[in-house]
Write a structure and sequence with these properties.
Mean pLDDT of chain B: 89
Distance between the termini of chain B: 25 Å
Oligomer: heterodimer
CATH superfamily of one domain in chain B: MetI-like
Order of helices and strands of chain B: HHHHHHHHHHHH
Radius of gyration of chain A: 22 Å
Number of helices of chain A: 8
Number of strands of chain A: 0
Low-confidence stretches of chain A: none
CATH topology of one domain in chain B: MetI-like fold
Low-confidence stretches of chain B: none
Structural class of chain B: mainly alpha
Largest interface: A-B, 54 and 52 residues
CATH class of one domain in chain A: Mainly Alpha
CATH class of one domain in chain B: Mainly Alpha
Strand content of chain A: under 5%
Largest sheet of chain A: none
Mean pLDDT of chain A: 87
């Protein structure tokens, strides 16, 4: 076929015959899930890290099981398990209160699934970062009579941030890439809509390369912001190397 | 990806429990509760499909492991020149290596896999030269694309690790080698490469576990690994949880074996001090 040698750019047009608008909508969905999942993961991670460091022996062991399972089982398998188990469990709980089953939106399920996986990762990152805070600083705060919550808010969280940011920024990049796995459970994020567009038009290379460019742009833009954030958090630190 | 992050996302030897750590009162109670849970799962859930699928599951696990080891080894062989080019190469090696790592690490593996399988796979048949070549019978299968995508991904992540490892070898050791009159190649072979690999070994553990966690993606392009076998079971028996729980257990066992093997290997390398 002669027309194959020339790239048909009109396929990427934003309006109806082109698929550009659909791709961008998928991209927005991906970013939404990544942001939501990362935020949920961060919340779980802060709780998990403090539980692992200061909790009782049983809580500590349970958290260890959580992080071990998530780090030893493929994300794809976890996503399937959490996706089915999460929606099932919610509907059973609702049935217990005699409320009919609800249709959980794909977005919520996606955020939940990515969040639980990210939670285990950020637990480990934050635990390492909190351990890197000099113990004297936390002891000094306690000596001033601060309540545990105030120590957390005023000392531990700000002081651990410079140590946590490299790990957390990597987790953010992992979160953006893990959203692609939701294509397997049929959520229309960027990778799945790309495959649909490519399958319909048979222009496989064009669409997959376009989607790759979008993901890459997200990573590169994130890297710029991460660099700024890191410089801000490390101000006042002695320059290394 | 830094060492810290690899440790956070992949199970590594530091996390292995010691034998003595099990015998604490609260842990014994927890293990009893867990055993009860396992027995409940075994009794009250349906497992009658298991014997029928056992041979296929075995094959699936074998395919997964072959995928893991072939792509890790090939990927590592690619990662050494990629890391070296970024540390010591001239700009026309340095730049492509850097771009390769950035692009591959900046896009999802699933997308790369589908790009190769659907994209290149739809392109190849249009060239008669490829259809007549001896490679054609292989290019019609799915697994070469899976191997290629996993290898490229491993090479990019590990190339970045090797860059750090090559750069981190103390300059004094290389100077000492030079003072002994070693040629550049001898120096690389005897000092630089072994020291870099030694430095990269803990991260290499983590990356290999991450690679194991990536292998089920090849099931999406019709390679029949253990994940694909379980998907088949789910389609045929209409069960949701049982096959997935078994799959999670299989992957946990594989990860555990891998991590123990790595620790044994690491302990064989003599180090001074720690």
């Amino acid at each position: 076929m002669a027309s194959d040698s020339i790239v048909n750019w009109s396929l990427l047009a934003l309006s109806a015959p082109g698929w550009g608008g659909v791709l961008l909508q998928g991209f927005v969905n991906s970013i939404q899930i990544a942001v939501g999942g990362f935020a949920l993961g961060l919340a779980l991670g802060v709780g998990g890290a403090f539980g692992k460091l200061y909790g009782g022996p049983i809580l500590r062991d349970l958290l260890e099981c959580y992080t071990t399972v998530v780090r030893a089982v493929p994300e794809l398998v976890l996503i399937l398990l959490l996706y089915y188990a999460g929606t099932d469990l919610l509907n059973q709980v609702l049935a217990l209160f005699s409320i009919g089953p609800v249709d959980i939106s794909g977005l919520m399920a996606g955020i939940f699934v990515i969040g639980v996986v990210q939670g285990a990762y950020s637990t480990e990152v934050l635990r390492g970062a909190i351990k890197a805070v000099p113990a004297g600083q936390i002891e000094a705060a306690r000596a001033y009579g601060m309540s545990p919550l105030k120590v957390l808010r005023r000392i531990t969280l700000p002081a651990m941030l410079p140590y946590a940011i490299p790990g957390l920024s990597n987790l953010w990049l992992i979160a953006t890439k893990d959203t692609a796995l939701l294509a397997v459970v049929g959520f229309s994020e960027l990778t799945l809509v790309t495959r649909q567009a490519a399958g319909t038009t048979k222009a496989y290379l064009l669409f997959f390369l376009a989607a790759g460019a979008l993901y890459l742009a997200l990573t590169l833009v994130s890297n710029i912001f991460i660099g700024m954030l890191e410089r801000h958090a490390r101000r006042g630190f002695a320059e290394q190397r | 990806m830094t060492d810290q992050t690899t440790h956070a996302v992949a199970f590594t030897p530091e996390d292995l429990p010691t034998a003595r750590s099990f015998f604490q009162p609260h842990r014994i109670v927890m293990m009893v509760v867990f055993a009860g849970f396992v027995i409940g799962v075994a009794v009250f859930m349906r497992w009658d499909w298991l014997p029928r699928y056992l041979p296929r599951l075995g094959w699936g696990i074998l395919i997964s492991l072959v995928m893991l080891f072939s792509t890790s080894i090939l990927g590592f062989l690619l990662a050494v020149p990629i890391g070296l080019a970024q540390v010591a190469g001239p700009w026309f090696f340095k730049l492509p290596a850097k771009v390769f790592c950035t692009v591959i690490r900046g896009t999802p593996l699933l997308l790369q896999l589908w790009l190769l399988y659907y994209g290149l796979g739809s392109l190849f048949p249009q060239f008669p030269a490829i259809r007549q070549s001896f490679l054609w019978p292989y290019l019609r299968e799915a697994w070469p694309y899976g191997v290629a995508a996993l290898t490229i991904s491993f090479a990019a992540y590990e190339g970045e690790v090797m860059r750090g490892a090559f750069a981190g070898v103390p300059a004094g050791e290389l100077e000492a080698a030079k003072a002994y009159g070693m040629s550049r190649w001898t120096m690389f072979r005897r000092i630089w490469l072994p020291r870099a690999i030694h430095r990269a070994l803990p991260t290499l553990n983590g990356e290999t576990v991450l690679q194991l966690k990536s292998t089920p993606l090849v099931a999406t392009i019709t390679v029949v690994d253990v994940y694909a076998v379980i998907s088949k079971v789910r389609q045929e028996t209409f069960l949701t949880y049982e096959p997935l729980l078994l799959l999670a257990l299989i992957y946990m066992c594989l990860t555990g074996i891998l991590v123990v093997a790595f620790r044994t290997f690491e302990n064989r390398i003599p180090t001074r001090g720690a």
